Amino acid sequence: MEYVKLVDVWKTYRTKAGSVTPLRGVNLSVDKGELVVVLGPSGEGKTTLLRVIAGLLRQDRGHVYLRGELVDDVPPKDRNVAMVFQSYAIYPFMTVYDNIAFPLRLQHRPKQEIDAKVRQVAKMLRIDDILYKKPGQLSGGQRQRVAIAKALVKGADIILMDEPMANLDAQVRVFAREELKQLHRDLGTTIIYVTHDQVEALSLATKLAILHDGVIQDYGDPVEVYRRPRNSWVASFTGNPPMNLFEARVQGGYVVAKQGNLKVEVPEAYSKLVSEGMEVVAGFRPEDARVGQGQLSGKVTMVERVGAYTVIHVDVGGLSLRLLYPSMAPISRGDVVSFEVPSSALSLFDTKTGLNLLRRP
Amino acid sequence: MPRLSPKVEGFLYFLPLVVAVLFLFLYPLLYAVYISFTNMGLLHLFKYRFVGLLQYELMLRQGYLASLLINEVAWTLGSLIPMMALGFALALILNQRDLYGRSLFYAILILPWAFPGFISLLVWSGMWTDPYGFMNRYLLPFLHLPHVNLVTSVWGAWTGLIVTNLWLSFPYYMTVFYSGLQSIPSELYELADVDGAGALAKFARITLPSLKKTIAFVFITSFVFTWNNFYPIYVLTGGGPGIPSKPIASTETFIVYAYQEAFSSNNYAFAAALSIVSTVITMVLAIIVLKFTGILEGLV
Amino acid sequence: MSSRRAKRIALKALRLAISYIVLIVMAAWSVLPLYYIIMTSFSNVGTLVSLTISALIPKHITLEAYRELLTGRFIPTIKVPNFPLWVLHSIELAGATALFSVALAMLAGYALSRLDMPAKKSLATFVYIITFLPVTATTVPLYLLFARFHLLNYAGLVLAYTPGTAVFAAFLAKLSIDAIPPDYEEAAMIDGLSRFGAFVRIVFRMALPVVALTALLGFLGAYMDYATAYAFIGSNSNAWTAMLGLWYLAGLYNYASAPAYNIFAAGAVLMGIPLMALFLVSQRMMTRAYSSLAGIK
Q1: Is residue B295 predicted with pLDDT exceeding 60?
Q2: Over chain C, what HEC string results?
Q3: Distance, in angstroms, between B24 CA and closest chain C CA?
Q4: What is the pLDDT of residues A53-73, one digit of tens each?
């Protein structure tokens, strides 16, 4: 069932520099129990979106539905949602216990009930040993868990999360991510999670939404979004290193790059969608190319050893491509490598609209 | 409860303050303007009538306006110049690097300003009493100075006022100038030393120019403050020996005279007129301050 | 020793000598009235006339003046000890002013900081300019106005005192609230508080330094006032405040019927020292507030 729904939502801000419209007709539909990650570049309206869902901001146009009901005029405290802020927003003048108990105390629940719930949630998040400490005495990871505990204790079945991992150290982040995924599996709450970190997005999401230019550019199963991006922008935004995109023309069953010596067989899936001489934007992901074998070749212009793998920049007759290379293998600038691009790895996009010729409905 | 638009909400929060200010500053002022055009006073307390500019004419023709203005300038400048000079001198003295016991001296010198001014004035009032007060009985004869009588002699009144006001306020100027001096980077002086400048040159070329803005700001704001400073005159001389139809013959300023006219003589309309004139002058001065210092930019 | 060096040393000695002399003289002058009044309060001198120079060096210290001060009934019509009653009045008045000042200042500061208000800048400027009028300049008009509305009493005084402090404090509050991330209030609103609830329960707690400073300034401003209090309630000695009481004790109200001078001295010391302490505390708080805000900007 459509648990959280946004229909044609617009929001404009007036700032000192002029006016900004981060949301321009956002449509989103989230099913119960999903962990939807809204991924997008920083500063492009993800936080605004979350605040509109929570009721902290009122949209200029469009509607918000929670659990099937219109909530445009319902204040935040009555929407029964929980929110985890990027800064955690834990009251520094209260102990951890009081912080977590706060929402329940506002509802005037009996003391026993509050105590039981707080301890239950604290145990779940493994913070039951620091219940009486003040926030100032906690580490970043602990504070984050307190923030999540505050959100869970309300028992709300919709949780909004605004980049909750952003302030954690890289190593801690990995663990926090796994914990969150496990938590979601155990509790089955509907979570809307906002981030600019792709790795997080792809690993956490049950459904992935890409927000850019004020609208949802793509929405669906994370793997699908990754393998068959709906438009070229999404294609270049996802993937690390990003997809190689180049202008090309269809000639004799091949996609031939306009600049550079690159030609790949037209993929089976696209064969009926293209015509001879048609101009397209083509793309393939670096990890899909096979290096060390094949017809194509190029000169290495830059080598980046990232650890788990190596990224090499290859010049193919004026066209620069990024390819992956096994991490320990020797390679250096000036070397010539051969590679091939399997046709199944290729995606074709319309030159004018950027839409994937294979777009999903 | 219906959802208020954030604009309305913000206005509601700001409202109490705006209402308070309007009701307690603007409205009384307008009311005073109205009253000043009537003849409300001892004889016409409840049945007063509109008399136009009568009160203002009175002020002009009987010489009150002129002498009050002269008194004000005498009082303000006569207070400010010694205070700023003394404060500055003390700041310079305290600023010397090889001075011993600076914090102790500073703590003691700050006392006149820290102690409640009103109470200090009451004490000074007793001290200036002629001939039994401390000043006239012991200190002045000890220093071979003549008696100072605040009640019967004009120059006595002015002297007492200036000296007492000096006592009350010099610490403020000392503090302001001291922190100003402290904020001049010592490198400037060191460089001047290397260039061979003497003490006087350093003072004229570095110290004074660095403090120019501070001195100007302090002067202007203190001018406005002293102009409207009620308590010293009211407590010590009650307006001085004479009445303000002749300049300097009394120590009346607008604010003191208006107060007395209202609460001692019940000449409410005249007092209102005096208040209005003084307020206008103060507002003009205040606007000059704002324009000059550009404080407003940094505030909202 | 070269003559040049000798000259420099002599000059330095001269400079320091002059400095110390000036400082000592100024220090003595600064302390003089305070020392004088403290000594008087501990002596048994009844009138100014009988005050001799020997009173400065105390021969015997007595607390008689203080006892008289705290138990005396100077004005026959008041049944209870006068001075404590007057002090109580001052505290009530000042306390109420502190409360109102805090309320107005925090509300306005919150509005200026967080909320999107129409014509915000011009209103704020307008309010700021208006309060350049010194309080004593508005005393006469205020009196006339309040007389019509039957406000010549404590309620009126509180109303008269509050805006002065509140406006200045409102701008301080704005700067202080600017420094608090809005996340806390938003979290509170999601937790179940209304915006006003979040304002009272969360923002107040987090802006405690400014709240304390405003309360202190409001308290001091109201406590130390004489002019407006005399204008409003001077005629009713039952309702006098501490400052009005001191005026009376100093013999300025009515020289002939004034009580003994050492009693006045005791009052001056008893009121002066705590007020001075509070004043210094408020100055400290203000410098701290300004420096912490400057650091953030």
Answers
A1: no
A2: CCHHHHHHHHHHHHHHHHHHHHHHHHHHHHHHHHHHHHHHHCCCCCCCCCCCHHHHCCCCCCCHHHHHHHHCCCCCCCCCCHHHHHHHHHHHHHHHHHHHHHHHHHHHHHHHHHCCCCCHHHHHHHHHHHCCCCHHHHHHHHHHHHHHCCCCCHHHHHHHHHHHHHHHHHHHHHHHHHCCCCHHHHHHHHHCCCHHHHHHHHHHHHCHHHHHHHHHHHHHHHHCCCHHHHHHHCCCHHHCCHHHHHHHHCCCCCCCCCCCHHHHHHHHHHHHHHHHHHHHHHHHHHHHHHHHHHHHC
A3: 7
A4: 999 888 999 999 999 999 998
